[in-house]
Amino acid sequence: MSLRQRTLRKFYGLRAPQTGVHDEPAALGGPALRDKRIPWPKWPVHGTKERIELMRTLEGGNWWYGARVAKFEERYAEFQGGKYCVTCSTGTIALEVMMQVLGVRHGPNPAEVIVPAFTFIATASAVARMGGKPVFVDVDDSWCLDPERVKEAINEHTKAILPVHFAGRVADMDQLNQIAREHDLTVMEDACHSWGSQWKGKGTGALSTGGAFSFQMFKNLTAAEGGAIVTDDEGFADACRSIVNCGRTKDAPWYHHPELGSNARLTEMQGALLLAQLERLPAQTARREENARILDQGLSGIEGLTLQAGDPRVTRHSHHLYCFKIDEAAFGCSRLAFIKACQAEGLPISEMYYPEPVYNQPIFKQLQPEQPHACPVSEDLAWRSAAWLNHWLLLGTSEDMQDIIQIVRKVKHHAPKLASLDCKAGRE
Fold this sequence. Notes:
Layout lengths: L2 H10 L35 H13 L6 H14 L3 E5 L2 H12 L9 E5 L5 H8 L3 E5 L9 H7 L4 E4 L11 H11 L2 E5 L7 E2 L2 E2 L6 E5 L12 E5 L2 H11 L23 H32 L5 E3 L6 E3 L4 E6 L1 H4 L3 H10 L17 H6 L8 H10 E5 L7 H16 L6 H6 L3
Helix pairs in contact: 2-9, 3-9, 4-5, 4-8, 9-14
């Protein structure tokens, strides 16, 4: 047991037995490796910076789409290594705006946009809502689009490729951009997991025509809701801002609307929060990366547990999630039993994995019943193997990381005993 654990146990007045990997699993009545009253990092993180920014905005009198939003856009573009940032109300809206600027429209022979089968539904729904057809392609061991499968999906109707930087692990942008050049396609990024992630020193969003970001409550950079588009293309940025701002264009009269837009503007309150949160993000990202390296060293090599594949070209990784797969046959128990056992040992591991490939969601089974799918990696991740830790756990101490490693090792050691947890919790 660590000094920190002993100190916290004393503070809480807990009587804690010395526990180890070989003790009976807590899920089966044994002692937990970590008492649940010992706190893990919480999210969101806030303090004086946020209070000052919000109070200045509150007392300043302008709460609407002004200087703080503009200041955040400038700073966030710089942080991502892009030239322009256009904020909007959500990451989903950011994706929809990009599709509209791309020229995706309702009508016969809809434009096809290649998307990963394993992602949040907004990646695909943004395409469909604008009138396009999302074409679902499998992922590889990076949990991002498989470039070889992308090549197979291209036809005369394909207009764009929309990779997701899953958990902040950047997709293979070298290959995807090369494929797009060969077929005269556009690449846009769903960067909603990747604030600060970099590919060969360049930030996401600026690796293609443009990228969409989310600032929803559980994101690494948050204002409860909000979104943004980052790009190096001034014309693309202007077109996106026009849609966000009611179809207005720069240097035109206020009540002059040359484009068919919407009202998806960010508020000054959100801009204030984001400015404060952005100040925290570099240090938080460095902490997440360092703690992820500790976990990589401690968890790699465990039979039946496979970490999300890295790539040396990913020069900064946001680690929105810390991802790994559980192979039931090799590990010794199912994903569900693993999660329940870890929770019993005191680890707040998420049960919120994507339960279906997106094409298996009811709306896409209704909209595209004829579309064939061959996405075995995505189906395995959804139905059997994907698990992850939320990013705020990676803001803990190195001792917290060692607790995570020991908990996983303990569950692995007792895995064959844990099959009964499937019945207690309901088999997947």
